[in-house]
Amino acid sequence: MCIRDSCRRFLEAMAKHGSSKRRSKAPSRTPPAHIQQLVEVLGVVGGLRLACLLDKVFLSTENWGQVIQSAGADDVFTLLEIMGSTVVVNKHLFWDRVEGELENPSKLMVNVSGGCEAPHLVETEEEIILSTLRQWCGLLRERGSLDWGEVPPGLCPCLAGLVLGYPVLYHCHAPAPEDGNTTDHCGNCLGGRPLMQYTVTAKLAHEYQEELEQAGSLEQEWWELYSYTCPIEFHGEPIHECEAERITQLGEQSVLWETAHLQATEICHPSVTL
Question: What is the separation of C-alpha 195 from the centre of its chain, rounded to a whole number of angstroms?
């Protein structure tokens, strides 16, 4: 796949299918939101990110498939449907990395259940959780989709984090059903607590940045690819330094990016939805 040609075809296809959905004429300039989505998809190409959430308000899953095919990128990308979201993954990298992580875990698994006084590392239950994740990932690989009602609520944030390639995985214990009622969401103990937000930003190589500037009126040079959070208690864990080194190294070696960095910022929200 020629990345520069695919960039152009991606933007053209996004405009075509997006304007078709809106029943309006395609804009002469590509909207910034479309360009941002393309940059996020490009992050999957070189491995800066494992998977990318796609905007289903802008395009349906079917139309996203047509965009990828029109861009000549269906030899690289494939789409997965997971718990109501559509993600695009690099078919040559994704499953090797996911299955490798499940066999030799390196990520930080944190219990953030609502009943906990504070977040803490998962220890005694880790193998049970990993075994369950293997089952669900096997089903996802076989079918290409998983629905909300299938995955246990407490496992949803953990599975989503694994699929998206986050270094920190959150696990919640599902509350016990009362009076025959069940819940689709688990409470967590992250609200009102200081968190570290790690954000991956990257600068495109000149020729690709120029391609985007020709498509739309842009002044930004740095692009945000994704972010993840971690309770501040675990800010010093080695996984974050390893992730920063991985991002920097990929940014230096890739022909697509000029440079890439992982930046950390302390945040705190009254409530956190996983």
Answer: 19
